[in-house]
Automatic annotation (TrEMBL):
<keyword id="KW-0808">Transferase</keyword>
<dbReference type="InterPro" id="IPR003673">
    <property type="entry name" value="CoA-Trfase_fam_III"/>
</dbReference>
<protein>
    <submittedName>
        <fullName>Crotonobetainyl-CoA:carnitine CoA-transferase CaiB-like acyl-CoA transferase</fullName>
    </submittedName>
</protein>
<dbReference type="InterPro" id="IPR023606">
    <property type="entry name" value="CoA-Trfase_III_dom_1_sf"/>
</dbReference>
<dbReference type="InterPro" id="IPR050483">
    <property type="entry name" value="CoA-transferase_III_domain"/>
</dbReference>
<dbReference type="Pfam" id="PF02515">
    <property type="entry name" value="CoA_transf_3"/>
</dbReference>
<dbReference type="InterPro" id="IPR044855">
    <property type="entry name" value="CoA-Trfase_III_dom3_sf"/>
</dbReference>
Amino acid sequence: MSNIPQSIPNTGALKGVRVLDLSRILGGPLCGQILGDHGADVLKVEPPQGDDTRTWGPPFRDGVASYYFGLNRNKRIQFMDLASPEGQQEIKELMAQADVVVENFKVGTMEKWGIGYEQMQHVFPHLVWCRVTGFGADGPLGSLPGYDAAIQAMAGLMSINGEADRDPLRVGLPVVDMVTGLNAVIGVLLALHERAASGRGQLVDASLYDAGISLLHPHAANWFMNGKIPGRSGNAHPNIYPYDVVSTGTSPIFLAVGNDRQFRLMCKHLGQEGLADDPRYATAGQRSVHRAELKPLLETAFAALDGVKLAEDLMDIGVPAAPVLNVEQALQAPHTLHRELVVKMGEYTGLGAPVKLSRTPASYRFAPLTEGKAFLDAANDA
C-alpha cells in the first residue's frame, strides 16, 4: 500500500502529544489509534516479525490481514527487537521524547529487559505509562495472560448472553478488548490532565478483567439489590419490555420502548389502545412481568406490516425502533455515511472516529503501515 501524503492537516485536540505505542493485538493498538485520530503523534514499535494481527485473516491485502488495518491508522511503524541491547537503548531514546507509552506485554517482560515502568519512572518522570494487561499486576490472578473470550466467560458476560434455553454465548465481537482500549484512552487523558498541574506522569492500569466486570450493568445492580443470579434473556432487556426483537410481516425489528408514554404511542399507532389500558401492560414494571403474554400480542399486530416501514413510522412518532440490519447494510446506511463513520484514504477504508469535537475534530493523516524512524522533529508538522 502506498503511503498517504502528509498534507492532511492535524486538527486534533491532542496535537503536540507524542505517543510511543509498544502494544499489539487489540486493546493497546485501539488506544493508540484513538489518540492518533485526535491528533497525537503516534509511533508504533513492532517486533521484527510484526504485530501478530498481521496474520489474523483472511481477508488479506498485500499479505496483511484486515484485522491489523482496523487498529493501526494514524501511526507510523518502526520494527525493533526490544529483547536486544540495541533495541533497549533505542527505546529509551524514544521514551525521552515521548509523553505517553502504551504497552501490553505480559507483566514482568519489560522489567526483565530493564525498560519497565518501575525502572523508567525515575529516568523519565514526565511519562504517562499506560499498561494494558489481562488481570493487572497483582491479586490472585495478577500477571496472568488474559484473552477477550476467556474474560467474557470469567466476568459473567457469557452467562447473561444468549437464549434462555441455550448454552452461554460469547458476545459476537471482542467487547472486552475494545472497552479496555477505551478505558486506556480515558486513563491516559486523565493522567495528561493531571500532569499539566503536577508536571509528573503516572501509571495507567487498564486490565481486561476490570473492563469485563465493569460491563455488568444492569445485571450487577440487580444482583446487588435482590440477590437473584441473572440469566439469559435473548434479545430482551432484563428490566424493561418491550425491549426486544419482534417479528413483522417482513423483516424483524427491534423495539426499545423505555416508558409508558412510548408504549401508549405505539399502541395508538397500531390501533391497539386497549393494550395500553390493560393493567398487565399499563406500566413498565407490569409489562416486564408479563412479557411472555405481551410479545405474541404485539407480533400479531405487526403481522401484516412491513418491518422497515414500521420502524420508520414508530421513530417518527417518538417510539424507539430499528430494523435489524446486517454489517453491510449498516456500513452503507445513509446516516452512517453522513456521520463520517466510514473513512477512505487511498486503498484504505476503515471506521471513522465516533467522538466529534466542534473546534478540534479528529483527522486521518496516516493509513496503516506508514513507516517512520522516529518522532517528528516538530509535532506541529504531524
